[in-house]
Write a structure and sequence with these properties.
Blueprint lengths: L1 H25 L8 H20 L10 H23 L6 H6 L6 H27 L11 H25 L3 H14 L12 H7 L3 H15 L5 H32 L1
């Protein structure tokens, strides 16, 4: 019973911290949570103009490029923004850590969950865009759920890694932002995987988050059947990243109080 009560307490604390992150980010702004919709939408509109009208990039099955791009950004931003927030989740809560004991793993987990709120707002806008362009959702949207779980495993694993390393090396936040910028352009967010030259495409198969974004967008917009072998490989990689991140975090955790 004590174990169950502790699990319930820490679970409630995780959700409370996640909601606190959402409120703190938007409470003093005039538009509040609407920024979770406005930011990705404006990015999609600007980049859609640049890539579709200047670089003549192709979309998926004649889907308007702004919808194509916004869908890819929705799933990428869940990963990229989660890592950016999680990196400073420990160092930004040093006072909280010194006041009482609780599993430090809760802080990067809450940072990722807070970005899930933004993700669902973006999904709402994506639905409105599809309605505006008379695009119908596909029957196999249920397949997005297991892919989302796999993406969250992958994201949490890296969140644990970067947040724990940032306690020891404070330049980790700058490094993460640079890596994410290159990582996004090396992922099929602005283009479809089939556009990558055959010789280079095999290297893209090692980019798990890129494959997940591509698969999620293909299901959402084109109803493409899932490559279950690719999903299984992505799941195993994501699980390995999650376990590695959790192990590294627990290994470094005794040093947190000493360093901070």
């Amino acid at each position: 019973m004590e174990l169950i009560s502790k699990f319930r307490l820490y679970l409630n604390l995780t959700f409370a911290l996640a909601w606190r992150d959402v409120r703190v980010r938007y409470q003093l702004s005039i538009l509040g949570l609407y920024w979770a919709i406005i930011n990705p939408l404006l990015m999609a509109i600007i980049w859609a103009f640049v890539f579709s009208h200047i670089f003549r990039a192709a979309s998926l099955n004649n889907v308007p490029y702004v919808v194509f791009l916004f869908c890819g950004l929705t799933y990428w931003n869940l990963f990229g923004n989660s890592l950016s927030t999680a990196t400073t989740s420990l160092t930004g809560n040093a006072m909280l850590l010194s006041k009482q004991y609780f599993p430090r793993l809760i802080l990067p987990t809450a940072a990722v969950l807070a970005r899930v709120v933004d993700f669902f707002f973006s999904l709402l806008v994506l639905g409105l865009l599809m309605w505006y362009f008379h695009l119908s959702p596909n029957w196999n949207l249920w397949m997005l759920l297991p892919l989302l779980v796999i993406e969250l495993f992958y994201t949490l694993g890296f969140a644990y890694i970067v947040s724990s390393l940032n306690v020891l090396y404070r330049d980790m936040a700058q490094l993460v932002s640079i890596v994410l910028m290159f990582w996004m352009y090396l992922s099929p967010v602005f283009y479809v995987l089939q556009q990558v030259p055959e010789k280079a495409r095999r290297y893209f198969m090692y980019n798990t988050i890129g494959l997940l974004v591509d698969a999620q967008r293909n299901i959402f917009l084109a109803g493409t059947p899932v490559n279950w072998h690719q999903v299984l490989v992505s799941f195993l990689i994501s699980l390995a990243v999650l376990i590695a991140g959790w192990t590294l975090f627990r290994w470094l955790e005794p040093l947190f109080a000493e360093v901070m």
